[in-house]
Each structure stands twice: as C-alpha cells, then as structure tokens.
Amino acid sequence: MTQMENQLFRQKLQLVLRWFVPAAAVLAFAAWMYISPEGALGKLDAVGYAVCHRIDARSFHIHDRQLPLCARCTGEFYAAGAGLIFQLFVSRKRSKLPSRGIIAVLVLFFLAFGIDGSNSYLYLLKQTSHGVLDKIPNLYTPNNILRLFTGSGMGIALAAVLYPIVNQTLWRELDSRPALEWKSLGILTALVAAINLLILTGSLIVLYPVAYLSALGTLSLLVIVFAILWIMIMRQDNTFESPRQLWLPLLAGFTLAILMILGIDLFRLQLTGTWSGFPGLSG
Known about the structure:
Layout: H1 3-35, H2 40-49, E1 61-62, E2 65-66, H3 71-90, E3 94-96, H4 100-128, H5 144-170, E4 175-178, H6 182-200, H7 204-233, H8 247-272
Helix pairs in contact: 1-8, 2-7, 3-5, 3-6, 3-7, 4-5, 5-6, 7-8
C-alpha cells in the first residue's frame, strides 16, 4: 500500500469511526444503565462493583447504606480523581515525570498501600477460614482509617504518574517541566488529608460528594487508560494540539470502560446474585 493509499484508508476509517464510536457508546451505556441498580447511588454502586469487593464492614456508610466502594478503594479512587483534576488546573500540558525525591515519596505511599492491604487481606483470611489459617500472624489489627489513608496515598501516586504519561502521549508540543513539583505535591497531599479527616466525621455533606467522586474517579481512570490504548492502536501519538480534538479517543475510551464494567458486573452478579459484597466475607 502506497503512502497516499494509506492516507486515504485512514481518512475513510476516521469517517466510519466518527459514526460507529458514538453509536457504540450509546448502546453500551444504555445496556449498563438497564442492568445497574435504580437511583443515582445505585449507578455508582455498579461502577464500584466492577473493581471493589464492597465488603460492608470495610466500607463507610451513608446512614445504613454503604458507599459505592470500600474504605481503601474510596480513598484510592477519589484521591486519584482529585489528583488528576488538580494537575489539570495546575500543570496543564507539563509532561515530565516528578523528580527522584518525589518519586521516592510516591514509592512510600505505594509501600504503605501494599503493606496495609496485605495485612488486611491476611486478617480477612483468618476471620473467614478455619484450621491452620487461624494462626496467620498480623502486624496489627486493620481498620477503615488506615485503609482510607493508605488508599488515598496510592491514589495520589497513581495520578502523579499517570498525568505526565498521558501528556507525553497526547500533545504535539510538550511542556517539558515536571507535572508535579514539591509545592504542588504538598498542596495536593494536604488537601487529600483534610478530605480524609472530613470523611471520618461521617458527615453526609462530605460522604455524598465523596461517593460520587470515588465512583467517577474509578470511571475516569478506566476511560483515560482505554483512550490512551485507542490512541496508540490508531497511531495518533503526539498528534493533538487542542483538547477539543480528543472527543473521539475519549468517547472510545468511555465505551470500552463501560463495556468492561458491564461485563464484570454481569459476571459477578451471575456468580453471587447480589450487588453487595461477596457472600460470606464480612471481616
């Protein structure tokens, strides 16, 4: 295929995709809306259901209703969403990864997440199993406060690494400055810590927005990852000059994210028969 033929093929493909992707997005979203629970919070539950165990005892609650994600996932995904929004306003098209010092801090966040998550999982095995597993040692008794803070630290780390990588993939002209510097990291961390403390008050004024932000943060991360994958498959790396040009990759990413969530939701619902946590897991 000659260069001109290849260019004509790409133009025809783009024209087809401009109609196909929106149609697929509408169909996928309609199917997911149909199978997901009723109400706004029910839809958020269906997002969390695809990525989180949703164990009731390990979740925060609005009255008697658990949030869409467990305490750890709530912290992780709301902080990741907040971190991406924060960098969008502060960093714009900055595309360089953070300095080694900041990376070291992010690694500490990751290690805290891994240690607390592993300890919490072993504690769950001890509570739900019998025999030799009863003797599994634990570093400490896990709790939702630690889950929230270690989860939100991981969310900050995800956003700090993902944001510059996205910029490196998208833009024709790059801003080579670090996307996150010490001052902005400090502000973001302080903001997340303050929100965590507000969550722990149990105030409905805080929990309702956090429920939305955590579920939408989950969806946003999936959309971004699938959009970047779409751009790489279509060989459109570093071809964009304006955010307005991103509508098709983002819509494709949204479609793929919804299809993934729909598939997992249907599989898990068929397996467990409930939109709540896995039956038998209550620790």
